[in-house]
Amino acid sequence: MELVDLETFAAIARHGGVTRAAAALNTVQSNVTARLKALELELGARLFERHSRGVVLTAAGQRLLPYAGRVRALVAEAQRVTADDGIPRGPFRLGAMETTAALRLPPLLVTYARACPEVELVVSTGSTAMLLQEVLEHRLDVALVAGPVVHAELEEEAAFEEELVLVTAPNLRGPDALAGAGGLKVLVFRAGCSYRQRLEAILAARGIAGARWLEFGTLDGILGCVAAGVGVTLLPRIVVEAAARAGQVNLHVLPMAEAKVATVLVRRRTAYVSSALDAFLAMVRINRPLVAAAE
């Protein structure tokens, strides 16, 4: 089995057809078709079902696809390992929750970029569940997510500690008032957000049921709608303090057991720690005591 055959197979699955895969791979359609047929013959299984709009994976193809991604990632990692001479350089893929990316990351990334100018840093945001999956599937080198994270394939270490606060419109004076709010709307990030799970538990502890959950893709969208009185949310204090000082929202302190949450840095246990990653880990560790002291 050749690597190029697996890459061709993955491209067909990703683009949904042989013609589109050929264009993405900058080759001719007949070459893609030939490689697919050779791979199916070698494996003794049909990998795609053809239809008028392209192709779909068979059950065998669905089982093979994650392995194709892992093989490609391992080859890319082997190349990075070989080229790593101790100087941070090359691609470094970092994931972070929207709230972390908004206020925690910028000062770290400015320092990191100055110290490691040859690193090609790519930052993406998402929910904790989404980011963990991308780390597991080798699409991210590390991610900053809400902890704790318990997974046999992942290793975590503390990065920040956040205080979560209930955020409401300025005219709502206290979390207990929520219990009497009819038709309560709760504004959250996409499914898989750990703060959403925490807020569900907080509302349940106060006997609040039947709330309507509204999903948003951005922090600004959530804050703007909370300020307008659309609903309530749960966010780290550091993210919403400026809006509270401006009188746009009201913050409600929660008991420590409900409020405290750790942001952890996760990576695959078996992943090679490149010079770029090692430099970032060192920077997080150096700044961690300063962050804790500031809070």
Automatic annotation (TrEMBL):
InterPro entries (alphabetical): LysR_HTH_N, LysR_subst-bd, WH-like_DNA-bd_sf, WH_DNA-bd_sf
Record has Transcription regulation as a keyword: yes
Residue ranges of every copy of the HTH lysR-type domain listed in the record: 1-58
Keywords assigned: DNA-binding, Transcription, Transcription regulation
Domain of life: Bacteria
Family to which this protein belongs: Belongs to the LysR transcriptional regulatory family.
Protein's recorded name: LysR family transcriptional regulator
